[in-house]
Amino acid sequence: MKKQKQLDANGYRKFSIRDCLAYAAGDLGCNMSFALKGTMSIFWTQYMGMDLWYAMLLIVVQVWDAINDPLIGSIIDADKRKYKRNKFLAYIWAGSIGLIVGGACCFLPFPNASTWAKAIIFIAGYVVWYAFYTVANVPYGSLLSLISNDVKDRASLSAWRSVGSIFGNMLPMVLLPFLIYDKDNNLMGERVFFAALIMGVLGFICFQFMIRNTEIRVDQSITLNEETPKFNVFKAFGNFIKNRPAVGATLAAMGMFIGMQGATTAVTVVFQSYFKNVQISGIVQLFAMIPIVVFTPLARVAVAKFGKKELATFGSICSIIAGLGLFIVTPENTKLDLILYVVFQLIYSLGLGIYSTVSWAMMGDAIDYNEWKVGTREEGTIYSLHSFFRKLAQGIGPALILVIMVALGYLGENEGNQIWEVAVRMRYLVAGTFLFSAILQFIGLGLIYNLNKKKLAEMTADLEARKAKKTEKISESN
Fold first, then answer.
1. Are 286 and 319 a contacting pair, CB within 8 Å?
2. Assigned superfamily of 17-217+241-469
3. Across residues 416-435, what is the average pLDDT?
4. Nearest to 395 by CA among 32, 47, 65, 17
């Protein structure tokens, strides 16, 4: 006998662990592709031999990013067609198809091609990958505010999204160093292409699980204005700039990704030439994720007690302390230095974990804030602009760090054999990058983001009252 579905007061399937697992699977799918971006700098500098060329190319493709994210977000918001289940799910399905091969396009192994041919390969591959990634990722981020409007449910979804992100990073983080580096710590670039294809297939499977198990509970058909104006992307951008929660959460996310993505190449070089064992890099980074895993199940209770802004700000302070600690370097004793590095990475990850488990729920609240202040939700545009600035940090951060690395003596042709003085400089550069990242997070969360626990409760109650009144008017008119 088939088990009967448990329904809530509005006739939807009750929110449960199924929703959390489905939403986690979505970010797992995204990160099956995105986690490979951490290998991109090493691939293009050490295997393809591009060095500063790669830094310049990263800047070039940000022009595409600037067009791509808001454009796709506005297309999604302006799309009024009726879909069988939900338009966001339809776009995610389309993006997941392209990501099967999109990531691999960034790692076409032609090290003997001319410089200009390599530049064309990189730009074309990046454009294809990023277009499909945005088609999947922008609507995925917007879904959180539609799955439930309950504060605790959103905290759970955000925490489980972090779980999906963690596992999506774990697989390439731990396995890739063993698969793509030889015994001399040098990259075997041709293997990266096949690894990217496998990641694309795994990501597609995760997306399909998410799509089949997602329930949309927040009614999109109810509008707060009597007359809804035609969608205007420029006005939506203006609303985003005036949206303090969106701006604060976005600045914090930019800081987070400058640390996570910007330092990736320098971290790899540190393990290649300073600790002289690149294969343990994934294990060390995996170990540093323990605080995130431990905190995730506690996120729902912690948010209910303290509030999202309050928790995230505390996390950024923990990360600042850890960033300062990473400057404690003992170059004459790399064993002790590795212990210190791991300890402060744990503290840094604790702060990052506290923030990351609530970061997506904070963006869901920022979307509600836009509805509260101007009367329109504009999920796609708000999230796409948030996504654009995050990805700007993911592109500009590594490019800038790579320029600094070269200025400090890094040579791509030396691969995993940088001279000792350069290795020590990379060690300090990693510490400086993480500290800068944590400071940006604190500014965004502690000084700009203005939805504390009390104000969030006020906004939620006001929005519910407005929607109830609007629904009542619609019922009376019918």
1. no
2. MFS general substrate transporter like domains (1.20.1250.20)
3. 87
4. 65
